[in-house]
Amino acid sequence: MVTQMHRLEPEFADSDPDAYMQTVLTLLPRLLMEEINLRTLETAVILARSASLLLAMAVRMLYTLGGNRYYVIHEAEGRHLRALFWLCYGLDKDMAIRFGYPPLMKDEDCDLQLPDNYVLSSSDHQFFIKPLSSQELLFPSDIRLSLIKSKVYHLLYSDYGWEQPDARRLQYIRELDQELRDLKSSFPDSCWPDLFATEPNA
Fold it and tell me: Where in this chain does the record put each Xylanolytic transcriptional activator regulatory domain (predicted)?
């Protein structure tokens, strides 16, 4: 993921993300037989984009290690574990919206306090205007958007959502639309999604 995000930088010019992925895949059988620890979780997360079954495995490891709870941040490597939690959370909500199946991670089972060193999408760093410090967290997608996606699935696409009367569903849609507008307004004007969605084809 890092090599993809920084592929235009000279130090990553010769990197091969696909080769890294293949290397991780060769370790998968051994991974399944090992005791769950932070390294096995990292391996599963790296592969999670390729298969939802591997994401399910990563989520189970995450829960076993306590990464879904904020208090783990006070333990050794706790901040890294919480960063992996948010990465899994974002992937899970993306897949739920994209494929229409229930998310693996339920919000009521997780502490959803944002990391202290999380770089919000409203910052210049998130849009690669300035160099990113190694002390700051950056994710493939804004995790505040992942929280909204979780609400979208629960309120509109879950069994609960489908059982609601039309008037209630319309109310939910308006509320979610306002949340999205509020989030968008925190982005730099030049990076609003509308600008890219409405650009004419070259």
Answer: 51-121
Burial of 24 from C-beta contacts in 10 A (0-12 / 13-18 / 19+): middle
Residue of 33, 28, 140, 161 whose CA lies nearest to 95: 140
Q: How many C-alpha atoms does 33 have within 13 Å on its Cβ side?
A: 4
Read off the DSSP letter of residue 142: -
Q: What is the DSSP letter of 9?
A: S
CA 49 – CA 15 distance, rounded (Å): 19
Q: Mind spelling out the 3-state secondary structure of 53-86? A: HHHHHHHHHHHHCCCCCHHHHHCCCHHHHHHHHH
Look at 1 and 164; give whichever has higher pLDDT.
164
Q: What mean pLDDT do residues 118-137 have?
A: 57
> pTM of the prediction?
0.71
Q: What is the DSSP letter of 12?
A: G
CA–CA distance, 20 with 26 (Å, rounded to integer):
10
Under 8 Å between Cβ of 72 and 81: yes
The C-alpha atoms of residue 167 and residue 94 are separated, in whole angstroms, by: 26
> Is residue 110 a contact partner of residue 122, using CB atoms and an 8 Å limit?
no
| DSSP code at position 137 | B
Half-sphere exposure of 105 (CA within 13 A, CB side): 33
